[in-house]
Design goal:
The complex is a heterodimer.
Chain A (H helix, E strand, L loop, with lengths): L4 E3 L2 E4 L5 E6 L6 E7 L6 E7 L2 E5 L7 E4 L6 E5 L8 E8 L5 E3 L3 E5 L1
Parallel strand pairs in A: 2-11
Antiparallel strand pairs in A: 1-3, 3-8, 4-5, 4-9, 5-6, 7-8, 9-10, 9-11
Chain B lengths: L3 E3 L4 E4 L4 E7 L6 E7 L5 E7 L4 E3 L2 E6 L4 E6 L8 E8 L7 E3 L3 E6 L1
Parallel strand pairs in B: 2-11
Antiparallel strand pairs in B: 1-3, 3-8, 4-5, 4-9, 6-7, 7-8, 9-10, 9-11
Chain lengths: 112, 111
């Protein structure tokens, strides 16, 4: 069964450093998403991506964040200058033909 | 007011019990509805989509009441493996829109 994959599973970085989180969505899906979940809090939408451009973004997704689909398979989230409050689980998701979103296993980002 | 509200629990039930989760949503324009389950520090996993006519998948039954903006999930004959957090999720559009998550209801099934 196809699945969304994400790398790395855990990333530790120092405040102010750039990080790139990687996702491989399910191959024939067209919409891709990033969500985050701060420990103990609910899952929050960051950004959606369709047809090689951002279709929607949340207030959290400020100028420090960017997304890219550099090739036909990878979908990346970049945080340019990490802050302590960026520490969270980051989930990638992709949309099926039945409008259901399937999530990857997540990347746990720890900013020290 | 939160867009999706759930009782946070925890619900502690014995194996074999029937347990019901409720959820309300505030935006009447919401188009699609889901229940996800999330195990500790793992990704949300789709349990089932929720339709106006109600739907059942084995021991799980979901109901949607658009007039009351209310969604429910019933788990019958609960198993130890059902222990998880159950997330009520809505989407304002059918295709491509963002998911809006509730805080989740924690379920613990005891032997």
């Amino acid at each position: 069964e196809p699945e969304v994959t994400q790398t790395p599973s855990h990333q530790v970085t120092q405040m102010g450093q750039e990080v790139i989180l990687r996702c491989v969505p399910i191959s024939n899906h067209l919409y891709f998403y990033w969500y985050r979940q701060i420990l103990g809090q609910k899952v929050e939408f960051l950004v959606s991506f369709y047809n090689n451009e951002i279709s929607e973004k949340s207030e959290i997704f400020d100028d420090q964040f960017s997304v890219e689909r550099p090739d036909g398979s990878n979908f990346t989230l970049k945080i340019r200058s990490t802050k302590l409050e960026d520490s969270a689980m980051y989930f990638c998701a992709s949309l099926t033909a039945y409008y259901e979103q399937y999530f990857g296993p997540g990347t746990r980002l720890t900013v020290t | 007011r939160k867009e999706v509200e759930q009782d946070p629990g925890p619900f502690n039930v014995p194996e074999g019990a029937t347990v019901a989760f409720n959820c309300t949503y505030s935006n009447s324009a919401s188009q699609s509805f889901f229940w996800y389950r999330q195990d500790c520090r793992k990704e949300p996993k789709l349990l089932m989509s929720v339709y106006s006519s109600g739907n059942e998948d084995g021991r799980f039954t979901a109901q949607l009441n658009r007039a009351s903006q209310y969604i429910s999930l019933l788990i019958r004959d609960s198993k130890l493996s059902d222990s998880a957090t159950y997330l009520c999720v809505v989407n304002r559009v059918q295709q491509g829109g963002k998911l809006i998550f509730g805080q989740g209801t924690e379920l613990s099934v005891k032997p």
